[in-house]
Design goal:
D-Maltodextrin-Binding Protein, domain 2; binds D-MYO-inositol-1-phosphate; 38% helix; globular; Fructose-1,6-Bisphosphatase, Chain A, domain 1
Length: 274
């Protein structure tokens, strides 16, 4: 079924998502040069929140609600606003917070807009990489960098044994222990594994053909929303295991050809790990 959205509404959401994400990303980048303060830890000692996570989310919420006061909002750092328009913004003020803390460049401000639960606009602004990824449902995915604007397409076809596979790990000991068991079995069957440290950037790397697949158990809606649309618009198939939609239980994203073999391997390992 093809859904049709008002093109003017999509343009408005697109413009607002890009301007809010870029403004927040520049503020967060400038803040990094002045040093990083850890404000609190969440699910474990490695799950940190910096002051910039909070300031970035506050800025995004302010820009969005100033422009569109009746929309809903869900943000990683607690922003939660029930809207009346059917439009909800899903925000990760800094995805890849640990990279940000250490001065590694793979982190991003991730802004997505949903209409009736379906993501229609996604912006992943990664200023330390000099890259902004933008997707609008039905209009493709693009990378904006110093060289201009580039249309994105996933690698396809790719054989499992030749696949460069990105993944990520959660923050709790239990989650990491089971993820380590799975990755131990995936690694000998693929070209190699990458752990970039920011789910949204991993999904954009898939869209840009820099990796061939991405999988992870546990990322939240704010990690997945914008980057997921970028990957989808670049031709990726995104799902969980056994036909379940992609979500916290599992996200697997790859080109059409690779998806099946990688899915079957992960489903087998998942069943074996109980
Ligand atoms: C994390 C990153 C990481 C992924 C974790 C996420 P955060 O988000 O995206 O790559 O492996 O599952 O929680 O905490 O940096 O916003």
């Amino acid at each position: 079924m093809t859904l049709h959205y008002d093109p003017e509404l999509l343009d408005q959401l697109h413009e607002l998502a890009v301007s809010a994400a870029l403004e927040a990303a520049q503020m967060v980048l400038a803040g990094r040069r002045e040093g990083v303060t850890v404000a609190e830890t969440k699910t474990s000692a490695s799950d940190v929140v910096t002051l910039m996570d909070r300031r970035s989310e506050a800025l995004l919420v302010d820009r969005i609600l100033t422009a569109r006061p009746d929309d809903g909002i869900l943000g990683e750092e607690g922003a939660s606003h029930v809207g009346e328009t059917g439009i909800r913004w899903v925000l990760d003020p800094i995805d890849g917070t640990v990279n940000y803390l250490y001065g590694l460049p793979e982190w991003a401000v991730s802004v997505a807009a949903e209409i009736d639960g379906l993501t229609v606009v996604g912006v992943v602004a990664a200023p330390a990489l000099g890259e902004t990824y933008v997707a609008v449902r039905g209009r493709g995915a693009k990378l904006h960098d110093i060289d201009g604007v580039h249309a994105l397409y996933v690698n396809n076809p790719v054989e499992l044994s030749a696949a460069l596979v990105a993944t990520g790990f959660g923050y709790t000991v239990e989650r990491r222990t089971s993820q380590a068991r799975v990755v131990e079995q995936v690694l000998p069957r693929v070209r190699d594994i990458r752990r970039g440290g920011a789910c949204s950037v991993d999904l954009c790397s898939l869209a840009a053909g820099r990796v061939d697949a991405y999988y992870e158990r546990g990322p939240h809606a704010w990690d997945l929303a914008a980057g997921g649309l970028v990957a989808h618009e670049a031709g990726a198939r995104l799902e969980g295991l056994r036909g379940v939609p992609a979500g916290e239980e599992m996200i697997l994203a790859a080109g059409q050809h690779l998806f099946g073999p990688l899915h079957d391997l992960l489903a087998r390992l998942d069943a074996a790990s109980g």
